[in-house]
Design brief:
Elements lengths: L2 E4 L3 E7 L14 E7 L1 H11 L4 E7 L4 H9 L3 E7 L5 E7 L5 E6 L8 H8 L7 E5 L5 H11 L2 E5 L5 H7 L5 E5 H11 L10 E5 L5 E5 L2 E5 L12 H14 L4 H15 L12 H6 L4
Parallel strand pairs: 1-4, 1-8, 2-6, 4-5, 8-9, 9-10, 10-11
Antiparallel strand pairs: 2-3, 6-7, 11-12, 12-13
Family: Belongs to the carbohydrate kinase PfkB family. Ribokinase subfamily.
Keywords: ATP-binding, Carbohydrate metabolism, Cytoplasm, Kinase, Magnesium, Metal-binding, Nucleotide-binding, Potassium, Transferase
GO molecular function: ATP binding; metal ion binding; ribokinase activity
Length: about 290
């Protein structure tokens, strides 16, 4: 089967700072790195490195050929990525000494994906394939509607959280993943907790505490591995990509989440985003205290 990802592609400009800047503060950074990023690209790379056939639907600008080349290098099918006239999306990310971050996001070409491009890509999808989206591109509702008609499993990472965007896709979802803050934002927007949603699979990621999985409202907890985090950027996307790959391979959800927790634990020990996502061999061989 195939994981189809309607996903963002960004240049991640990561600044190592002594602390996260406050309002009006000018802060000198200790280091700057540029990585391939965007929640979509991160998830595609994670799923591909976990061994799943992954096709990315997205857009880059005239300045984005390097991103296309890197996605191809990491095993992602890039035939459905088009070049737009606007610049490639990018993110400015500040990471402090504890590995926490804040992010400024410029959408760029991620909002230039066309209906024709989406339709052409999904015309190659087969019943039983997975379709995943995040809230960083155009055409999420259109993709969800089309995917449902084609018999795809519809998955959604509700980030960055915007109530209207999330509410629009909820009726189509088979699988929803969000963090604790986003779960509370969803409750505030809908008046419902995740246990009240009519969605078969829901995962709430809990950072260093692990993840909670709801199967038709019934919860199971999966603790995280204890590691020294240096950068939490991309850890949630790595987790999601590995969970989707596990689903695609027919793993029981508990096994898929356990493997995804291992991948996320490795990811937070590294500086960077898509370029440093661990592959399946690293995840299986990793040793944790």
């Amino acid at each position: 089967m195939t994981i189809w990802n309607l996903g963002s592609i960004n240049a991640d400009m990561i600044y190592d700072v002594p602390h996260l800047p406050g309002p009006g503060e000018t802060l000198s950074a200790n280091r700057l790195d540029r990585f391939l990023g965007g929640k979509g690209a991160n998830m595609s790379v994670a799923a591909a490195r976990a061994g799943a056939r992954t096709a990315h639907i997205g857009a880059i600008g005239p300045d984005g050929r390097w991103a296309l080349d890197r996605l191809t290098e990491y095993g992602v099918d890039t035939r459905h990525i088009e070049q737009a006239k606007v610049p490639t999306g990018h993110a400015i990310i500040a990471v402090d000494a504890q590995g926490e971050n804040n992010i400024i996001l410029f959408p760029g070409a991620n909002h230039a994906i066309s209906q024709d491009q989406l339709g052409q890509a999904l015309s190659s999808a087969a019943q039983g394939d997975l379709l995943v989206m995040q809230n960083e591109t155009s055409l999420q509702v259109e993709a969800a509607e089309t995917g449902r008609k084609l018999g795809l499993t519809i998955c959604y990472a509700a980030a960055p959280f915007q109530a209207d965007a999330v509410l629009a896709v909820l009726p189509y979802l088979d699988f929803l993943i969000l963090n604790e803050v986003e779960a509370e934002q969803l409750r505030a927007a809908t008046g419902k907790s995740v246990t009240d949603l009519n969605i078969e699979h829901v995962i709430v990621t809990l950072g260093s505490k692990g993840a909670r999985y709801y199967l038709r409202g019934t919860a199971s907890n999966f603790p995280a591995h204890k590691v020294q985090a240096v950068d939490t950027t991309g850890a949630g996307d790595t987790f999601t990509g590995y969970v989707l790959a596990g689903m695609d391979h027919g793993m029981p959800m508990a096994q898929a989440i356990t493997q995804a927790n291992r991948a996320a634990a490795l990811m937070v020990t590294r500086h960077g985003t898509a370029d440093v996502i661990p592959d399946l061999k690293e995840v299986r061989e990793a040793r944790f205290d």
